[in-house]
Design goal:
With 258 residues, this protein is α/β, with parallel strands linked by helices. The protein has helices at 22-31, 47-55, 78-85, 107-124, 136-145, 162-170, 187-195, 225-236, 240-255, and strands at residues 6-11, 34-39, 60-64, 90-99, 128-133, 153-156, 174-177, 201-203. It has a single domain (6-254), classed as TIM Barrel, CATH 3.20.20.140. An eight-stranded parallel β-sheet has the order 1-2-3-4-5-6-7-8. It binds nickel (II) ion (NI).
């Protein structure tokens, strides 16, 4: 048995991609020393599925929220988010944020949806999972205007510059790195990852997407977060054991677990 205990802070293990072999995915994850995960919501219809997932396992937690680029018939209200998040194993709100890379949802609508999520998170005193893609300026501005420091949050799948990371860190945000930090050409992102303070560093897979090296191109799964951890340990000049201990403690503290 591995002697490390990694926490995949962002994955979508309830998605249909895993319907044929979900139990095997959880088994392989344990074999890789990945002992806990957060299953992240992209639409509210998912909530019952996420509740069933956590009911069957004691090492899984979930979030409630609507992805910035997810088209919906009616926008989620603060009250609706609060009602769905009233579950002992719901430990975060999101994923939410801004995505100007794709435009399935109008940017103005994304922004008001983002603000609604942060306001619900304040009332619940839960952290916000933030998706920021090609939208640094507006995302960071909304976080500041909505006083994100009051409830805290996570910059998930971080892929922006150090100045953007620094602004988020200065608001108390955790920064989470996924498989793309392992990609050969991503020296600039590894340089950002090197500078994040120990206590604000998180790791994730965002599975089924974005598998890390050497699994790039395959379906991603939570066990592969070990490759992200190995990459960050090397970049930061610490042992894998130390990196695991630190990032897991950070995730537990951020999500208010244990
Ligand atoms: Ni995601």
């Amino acid at each position: 048995m591995p002697d490390i205990a990694l926490f995949d802070s962002h994955c979508h293990v309830d998605f249909h991609h895993f319907d044929d072999d979900r139990d095997a995915v959880f088994e392989r994850m344990q074999q890789q020393g990945v002992t806990r995960l957060l299953a992240v919501s992209v639409e509210l219809e998912q909530t019952p599925r996420l509740q069933a997932l956590v009911a069957a396992r004691d090492n899984v937690w979930f979030s409630v929220g609507v992805h910035p680029n997810h088209e919906v018939d009616s926008e989620p209200s603060e009250e609706e988010l609060i009602r769905l998040a009233a579950h002992p194993r719901c430990v975060a709100i999101g994923e939410t944020g801004m995505d100007l890379f794709r435009h399935h949802v109008d940017p103005a609508l994304q922004q008001s949806r983002f603000r609604t999520h942060i306001r619900a998170a304040h009332r619940l005193n839960k952290p916000v999972i933030v998706h920021m893609r090609d939208a640094d300026e507006v995302t960071l501005r909304v976080l500041a205007e909505e006083n994100i420091a009051g409830c805290g949050g996570i910059m998930h799948c971080f892929s922006s510059s150090w100045p953007a990371a620094k602004q988020a860190l200065d608001m108390g945000m955790s920064i989470s790195f996924s498989g793309n930090v392992t990609f050969k050409r991503n020296d600039a992102l590894r340089d950002v990852a090197r500078q994040v303070p120990d206590e604000l560093l998180l790791i994730e897979t965002d599975s089924p997407y974005l598998a890390p090296m050497p699994m790039r191109g395959k379906r991603n799964e939570p066990g592969f977060v070990r490759h992200v951890a190995e990459c960050l340990a090397e970049v930061r000049g610490v042992s894998l054991e130390r990196l695991a201990e630190q990032t897991t403690a950070n995730a537990m503290r951020r999500f208010g677990i244990g």
